[in-house]
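Database export, one record per block. Field names are fixed; values are copied verbatim from the stored entry.
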Amino acid sequence: MSVESLVADIQQRFGYQTLRRAAELVSIRETLSTGITAADELLEGGLLCGAAHGISGQPTSGATSLLYAAVASAQGQALPVVYLDMGGLFDPPNAALAGIEIERLLLLSRTSLKHALFLVRALALQQLPCLVAIDQPPTLPLAQLKAVLRDAPLTLLALSPGALPQMQVALACQRRAWQMERGDVIGFSSELRLTAHPFLPFRQCELAFAIPREEACSARW
């Protein structure tokens, strides 16, 4: 009797779940592009669906630019995006320059953490693929979020000046150098560090950002 025949016989006698290929137990890691090639390569595909991500970085570090790029990328893939602007710092002109379609963005400004968590939970229960961006949350209760996101196709991405504790995926952004042209700042380079991930080790890469001349005095980037 061949192995295939033996497996079929056992499954017929005792049920399909009795004996099956181990590969069938491995879940597929679905990812969402950040919109920045170097960041996607660092994350080996992009943001993990069903996980809570944190981006930390001070003003002019590139952290906000990375968040805006991820939002624009999600919209480009026809995913709904909910933006929880808890700090009241959302910048529509810069967001539009980053490729965000403002008219399609679902924006909630200056909401409380309680309301933000309620909304995340409600969206997760809908089982619809989407991106939830949280700008400047005071903190995030990871235990609650993991339980909510575990079986949901929702990707959560939070931006804060300092690292949010115990995020499933943690990224830290720090500006390294300004790019100059004839005495004008035209861009900058930043180091992006992956400091926590369920599948990947600590690693880092360099990101390059261009600054439109009319936005050269902006302090968030």
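Remark 1: The chain is about 25% helix and 30% strand.
Remark 2: The mean pLDDT is 89.
End of record.
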